[in-house]
Amino acid sequence: MAWQVSVPELEDQLLCPICLEVFKEPLMLQCGHSYCKCCLVSLSCHRDAELRCPVCRQAVDGSSSPPNVSLARVIEALRLPRDPEPKVCAHHRNPLSLFCEKDQQLICGLCGLLGSHQHHQVTPVSTVYSRMKEELAALISDLKQEQKKVDELIAKLVNNRTRIVNESDVFSWVIRREFQELHHLVDKEKARCLERIEGHTRGLVASLDMQLEQAQSTQERLAQAEHVLEQFSNESHHEFIQKFHSMTSRLAKLKIETEELVKKWRNGLPKSHSL
């Protein structure tokens, strides 16, 4: 009797109704339906009342469900590794045992003798496989060499980057130190210049104060002389004539002294750029 069900169709029938995956440790209920052990245990834990089969809804006792040994053996048999089906030619149904070098295609013997690949250079698949494996190994070796070059380049770039960053840090430190010293020198020179200007200003101000005092004193003397002359103009004729010579002499002397002082003060006045 020939089998009417293919292996894929059979595998579809071996799915647990709860998790929809191939049975794992299948248990069979009293109604005849089977479930994964873990699925049945999980279902029992979530049922406070009596357990009913999810397929036929019949009341069952999940704690007394025996293992479905036959079903487990069928699943185990289906899980055994199977030899892959050989690749065959779509036209002649013969194994693809040759490789057409011109068209870079796998062909069978009839394709090389009778088909579109006749008179082309053909090579056994085993020989082509060995050759391509060697070529692949050579490509991998070349790739590793290129990767090694790139790794060396990356290492150099990293070293250069680290060196540049370190040198930049050193240069920055040196520049900051030099500028700190320059600032210190500038501050000292600024203080020295300010002190010199302040000292020179104090000297000039003191000289001007002294000259101002002298000028004010001369101003008082001139005012007094003017007052004396005004009173002298009211003297009698005899007194005026007798005292006129002495008065004019004193006035001439005071005038000469005043002119000399004014000339001296004008020559001694500080200019705006003398600071």
UniProtKB/TrEMBL annotation:
* Pfam families registered for this protein in UniProt: zf-B_box, zf-RING_UBOX
Residues forming coiled coils: 129-163, 205-235
**The organism's place on the tree of life at top rank:** Eukaryota
* Residues in B box-type domain copies: 84-125
One GO MF term, please? zinc ion binding
Q: Where is the RING-type domain?
A: 16-57
Q: What's the protein called, per UniProt?
A: Tripartite motif containing 50
Q: Tell me what gene encodes this.
A: TRIM50
